[in-house]
Amino acid sequence: MRVFIRIIILSIIFCACRKPNPNPELKDPIYKELQERMAGYKKDIDFTLKEKERIEKYISETHPHDPTLQMKRKTLRMNDKNHEKAKQQYIYTQIALENRKKEVRIEYLEAFKQGKEEEWQNKNEISARKSRMQNNSFLERE
Predict the structure, then answer these.
(1) pTM (2 decimals)?
(2) Which one-letter DSSP state was computed for residue 27?
(3) What integer pLDDT is reported at residue 42 of this predicted model?
């Protein structure tokens, strides 16, 4: 009898303790997409740094009258531009990620208070974002 009462009390305690998810942004598809973009830009930054080192080494070892030297210098300038672009996109995505994190947490907590924690994501916003990203090719990684 006592065991039965203890089981009932413990089940009431565990069922009654409803806590909000501390990281609801991890379930958000837009947040995940921004994280993937940020990781891609980080790879681009690392690649352009390695490429810059390789090109600079080649330029320093090449004879000044070598015909390929001018092309390598041009490649170095293009690489520097690509590096700056990747850094800018990384920073932009980082800011967008932080903003999205704040938005998602606010939306989730409001839905949690209303008891609709499973329906907190705005499906229209997600589909609109996906279509916007497909239409804006300049935001795509190259």
Answers:
(1) 0.75
(2) G
(3) 97
